[in-house]
Amino acid sequence: MIKSGQTPVRFGPFWVDLHTHELRKDAIKLRLVGQPFEILALLLERPGELVTREELRARLWPGDTFVDFDHGLNAAVNKLREALCDSADSPRYVETLPRRGYRFIANIEGSRPAMTASRDVGVLEIAKLSPDMPVELVGQLGETFPARSDPRQSKIHAWIHSWRKSLAVALVLCVSLAGGGLLLRTGVSRGKVAEAVLQPPKISSLTSPTDTAGEPAFSADGNYIAFYRDGGKPGDSGVFVQQLGSDQSRQLTRNEKDCCAVWSPDGRSIAFSRSENRELEIHVVPAGGGSERRLEVPGAAPRVGALDWSPDGKTIAFSGGASLSVLSLDNSAVRRLTTPPPLTQDWGPSFSRDAKQILFVRSSEMGFPQEIMTIPAAGGEPTLITTESARLRGSPRWSADGRSVIFASDRGGKSALWRVSAETRAPAVQFNENGSWPAVSRMGDRLAYQRETRSLTIWQTELPAERKAEPRILVPLTSQTDQGPGPQFSPDGKKLVYMSDRSGTMEIWVSDRDGSNAFQLSAVGDAGTPRWSPDSESIVFDANRRRGAVIEVLSLRGGAPRILTPDESENRCPSWSRDGKWIYFASSRAGSWQVWKIPSEGGTPVQVTKLGGHAAFESADGKLIYYAKTPHANPEIWQVPASGGHESLVSARVRPPTWASWAVVDNGILFAQPTGTGAPVLNLFDPETQRVKTVGMLHIVPFWLAATHDGKTVAFDQPGGHQAQIMLIENFR
Questions:
Q1: What would the mean pLDDT of 433-457 be, rounded to a whole number?
Q2: What ranges make up the beta strands (E) of 220-278?
Q3: 159 phi-psi bin (left φ>0, alpha ψ -120 to 50, beta other)
Q4: H or E segment and range at residue 56
Q5: Using an 8 Å Cβ cutoff, are 449 and 438 in contact?
Q6: For residue 173, what pLDDT is reported?
């Protein structure tokens, strides 16, 4: 029996810490919280034994909880199985005993065992051994193989397992021998290969979660990290240095406008950028502390703070004007490397380990796309690595062997870390769910990144602004992540619906209009984008599933949700037609994001747009469908007749910052808009006059915005507390 306070337990490729409530699969921390994790914990406490549904009800759903128990338990178990890549039909971990309960059937180890070469090698291990292995091949091989076979498996399953294992071992041997051998490429001796391959990655925090620290940079030996820290008081902010394994940091600079530190190859100096009088400067400071020195950059004023120091110590790469440039530290000469097209900016340089190539980002001044490229350090034509239709968070970095690129992107609205091949045009693969500003040590076995957390709240303001009503908090602390809350007022003006992870998983919650008397409506996990039916009696929303996202409908009167799109497509952002007969949604089922509709009682989806579409709403009279052209930042708002016809731009002046920061009201389209010089504003577009009028102001640009039909009350999200800390992954591969 496993006790709740016992050291982390292991089964297959998973590690579970019942004390900290963490689940990891190899290097990746999986998001499993709330009821799904509690179910796993209870099953692990009694492996091989039946845990009845009644026991689960008593432990996880108190009698006064407003939720359909059968539906909630089934949804929580499904969420658990998704995290474990398990199947109800052929379970490896969680077995269902019909109408009775569940049983954990895998072998469990109560503490971290010594790693030996006899452990079965799984596909994820192969992928780590060979970063250049095609992603498609890894996907065809399936999930990591279990460490021990289940004695209940049939002979057929045993044969398949044996065949897969043999193929995996053969692939490892092929990878190791190809191109002179993996061992030669990684520098690992034959006697240490088992330890290097099987040693589990370790993730820890370098700085406190109550700090605001980021933009990490490794010293050449990988034992120190330089970073920016916001101390909150004058003189407490600037560039800091901290040794790995220590909780003490040393402050090098005392200017809150310093950023983007990089080490010299000899570890004696640190270069960084400083904003002074709206201009960027490059400075150097001794790594042990001392006087700063400003570098002269003749004829190429830095525009973006990101820097990199060449491995030979002779030059610093930076963004000079719109181009990527190199500054000689011997004579201050500046050599321009790139010639970007008009309305683009090159930034984020990163030297390869052999100093022959420089990685960089080419951004469009229109926002997207952002391209990750490489160029010879001696000059030449750039080569495209990958294109992102999302914001890149920090400079991309080379892997230690130079065969792949690590970068951070807020693709999907949340910053995460990705890896992409530098040699083939294979798709990028995500390996972290909350990270930015990656840094890879020269030795290649350590990765640091910036992890951000913020609490979100729902605010409300009254319009027009002449009423002088101050915005106020409507619902505090809906989420401890950067997802949500997606508020929406009910058409009858009595209720509010929103997303919240306060129960452990992201679910749909309903309250009175003023935020009081809130209760959890859904229990499906990863639910989002709730929208009201015209009669204010039901909610339509999307929910993540293993192979896509589905559209579901829930009644306020209770009962299980109805799934309208049971296929394996990505289906997002639903909304009801004014007459309640249709539900619009965005889907990539046709190969690109388009607006679709489906009968609200269920049926066959019908494609509405063909030129791109996302997040649709009907006009007040039901004659037009307004929609964001793309799911990316600053989308255009387009329209198409509800009966079908020509797709057209509403107005070039209507450009909300996100696909969710606008709302259809009785007299037009209300949307948030940054001003570039001050606080963001709330604008109202009148379709009849084609005019835009400012009707209110905001403190921060919101991601979500909703309004009552009359446009007099607006709800939006704003961040509450914000922290950033530096995380460290050791044994990174």
A1: 85
A2: 224-229, 238-243, 249-251, 258-263, 269-276
A3: alpha
A4: helix 53-60
A5: yes
A6: 36
